Structures are given as structure tokens and as C-alpha cells.
């Protein structure tokens, strides 16, 4: 299960912009237009993958961890 939207960041690497913004892509928890599930060794590694994905698909990418995905500080904060 995905963590809450407040645990996410938005990556925009269209045109090599390399922008990372805290928070969800959209203001609603119900919007999903498609998703990738990737396994990464760390949050930084996942961020690198999201940056490459944004560049490749020419779209903004929301990076959000799964519950139990390794970063327990994010998981516990999202459950509060």
C-alpha cells in the first residue's frame, strides 16, 4: 500500500530541469494516471530512477514510498 501523499515528492526532469518538489503531484488522494513500482536500495536511488523516468517520459513523476519500504521514518510519519 502507498504511504500518504504528504510522504511524496514530485520530480520534474523534463528538458533536464532536475526539479524536486515536496508533496503530491495532485491535491487529491484519488488521482492515479499510471504507476511504476521499482525496488531501490535507498530513497536517493529511487529519486535517481524517478529523475530518469521523468526525462524519458517527458512528464512529472510523483515518487512515493510503499508502507514497509525501508524508510521507517517516512512510514511512521505517514501513519500519524
Summarize the structure.
With 80 residues, this protein is an alpha+beta fold.
Show the helix and strand layout.
Layout: E1 9-12, E2 19-22, H1 43-57, E3 61-63, H2 72-79
Antiparallel strand pairs: 1-2, 1-3
Question: How would you describe the overall organization of this protein?
Answer:
This protein has one domain. The chain has helices at residues 43-57, 72-79, and strands at 9-12, 19-22, 61-63. The longest helix has 15 residues, at 43-57. It is built from 2 helices and 3 strands, in the order ββαβα. The protein has a 3-stranded antiparallel β-sheet with strand order 2-1-3. 29% of the residues lie in helices and 14% in strands. Mean pLDDT is 80; it is low at 71-80. By secondary structure, it is an alpha+beta fold. The protein is globular and about 30 Å long. The two termini are 16 Å apart.
Task: Label this structure with key terms.
80 residues; disordered C terminus; 3 strands; alpha+beta; 14% strand; single chain; globular
Query: How would you characterize the largest beta sheet?
Result: 3 strands, antiparallel
Major sheet: order of its strands? 2-1-3
Distance between the termini: 16 Å
Round the Cα radius of gyration to an integer and report it: 12 Å
Shape: globular
Proportion of helical residues: 25-40%
Give the structural class: alpha+beta
Strand runs, count = 3
Order of helices and strands: EEHEH
Spans of at least 5 consecutive residues whose pLDDT stays below 50 are 71-80
**What is the averaged pLDDT score?**
80
Estimated share of beta-strand residues: 5-15%
Count the domains: 1
**Number of H- or I-type helical stretches:** 2
Amino acid at each position: 500500500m502507498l504511504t500518504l501523499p504528504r510522504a511524496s515528492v514530485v520530480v520534474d526532469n523534463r528538458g533536464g530541469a532536475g526539479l524536486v518538489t515536496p508533496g503530491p503531484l495532485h491535491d487529491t488522494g484519488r488521482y492515479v494516471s499510471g504507476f511504476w513500482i521499482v525496488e531501490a536500495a535507498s530513497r536517493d536511488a529511487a529519486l535517481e530512477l524517478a529523475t530518469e523516468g521523468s526525462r524519458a517520459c517527458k512528464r512529472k513523476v510523483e515518487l512515493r514510498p510503499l508502507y514497509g519500504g525501508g524508510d521507517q521514518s517516512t512510514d511512521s510519519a505517514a501513519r500519524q
